[in-house]
Amino acid sequence: MLALSHYNSSASPLLPGFSNASGGKVEARVVVEGLSQQGNHTFVQPTTSGIIAVILSMTLGIVSNIVAFFILANAYSLQRRRTKATFLLFASSLVVTDFIGHVISGALVLRLYLSGGVHPEDFDDSDGMCQFLGGSMVFFGLCPLFMGSAMAAERCLGVTKPLLHSSLVTKTRTKICLSVIWLAALCVAMLPCFQLGSYTYQDPGTWCFIKVLSDTREVDLALVVLFSGLGLTSLAVALVCNTISGVTLVLARLRRQPGSHHSAKSHDIEMVVQLVGIMVTSCICWSPLLIFGLMSVIRSYAGSTGEDLSSYKSLMVMGVRLATWNQILDPWVYILLRRTVLRKIYLIAKCQAGLRGNVIGRWEPTSSHSSEKKVNQV
After folding, report:
1. Which Gene Ontology BP terms does the record give (predicted)?
2. Cβ-contact 7, 313 below 8 angstroms
């Protein structure tokens, strides 16, 4: 998914001619106001700066995912530990899914930008491209959330029950789990094809999503509840599993005897740190869209007027912008939170702390010596 950026508001220029009489001027003004405010929509024209922002966002996401994929692929080829290999397989699949979703959704949004966007009058007349874009946003939105919770559950089992993990988790079962995740997300995304919900253009006419703001029906409400419920449940599962894994590792670290072997635990710590990074990123980026979409469809289904829903339009746009950044930030979790990078950061911080301690140590005798001189003089 690609971020929506800057727009300029303007009334529709396609107006019929009117006479110079005062009555004609009044009629023209009424027609202009009617067209600009029809359905409580304001036609927005994508600007050049908005198009540039979309291209830059798309480029950044593509480069980030490619770099992260090569890092993960290289680590996977060198990895001999089965638990680590399983985690890297999940992580590589997540990066590939983010990459494909960023390219597909970004290309469609960019096409809408270049064509000037869709007029508010045509929001409900969704075409094939809108259906595909809306389905892509749902599919590539649920997949990372499902994978994040599956990775957290796998690591929680590996940390708390290592013997059970070694007997249950295999490369084949991991691939089956990934296939089930993709299939489940695809089934939810294709529900509107069976008239179970619908995708429509969203304000300002440069993206498509589930109908949440106008003429919502029971099936639209059910689809949004399903989408948001699955997403929020995945985040909750990841939070619980990562908390259990983190607490278990901290307790094991505290109980470890000095000089004992702990290289295996360092691998677990690295994976849990990366999972926490994924979870935090997903919560920040996806929670607003999941919550705002649920709030919007409930208000719309309850019969709220267009004026009451105007604020929710802005919230939905803000939510999809944040969701876009999830596909850009996810790769940097693997790039920056690797053990080698964390070790370098730790050494730099330790070195800086040592230098600060030396500076304090050099100053303390001097201050003490000067104070002794003052006492002797007195």
Report:
1. adenylate cyclase-activating G protein-coupled receptor signaling pathway; inflammatory response; positive regulation of cytosolic calcium ion concentration
2. no
Owner of token pair 């027609």? 31
Separation between Cα atoms, residue 137 and residue 135, nearest integer Å = 5
Cα-based distances in Å from 215 to 131, 192, 195, 209, 319 = 17, 15, 15, 14, 21
Q: Name the more confident of 20 and 12.
A: 20
Tens of pLDDT along 200-250? 888 777 888 888 887 788 898 999 999 999 999 999 999 999 999 989 888
**Does 204 sit behind a cis peptide bond, omega within 30 degrees of 0 on the bond before it?**
yes
| CA end-to-end span of the chain | 75
State the Cα torsion 180-196-1-65 to the nearest 10°: 10
Task: Return the sign of the alpha-carbon dihedral for residues 296, 298, 300, 302.
Answer: negative
Helix (H), strand (E) at residue 202: strand 199-202
Q: Would you say 149 and 188 are in contact if contact means Cβ atoms under 8 Å apart?
A: no
Write out pLDDT tens, residues 266-314.
677 888 888 888 899 999 999 999 999 898 888 888 776 556 667 778 8
Total-model pTM: 0.76
Do residues 141 and 286 lie in contact, with contact meaning Cβ atoms separated by under 8 Å? Answer: yes
| CA Rg value for the chain | 27
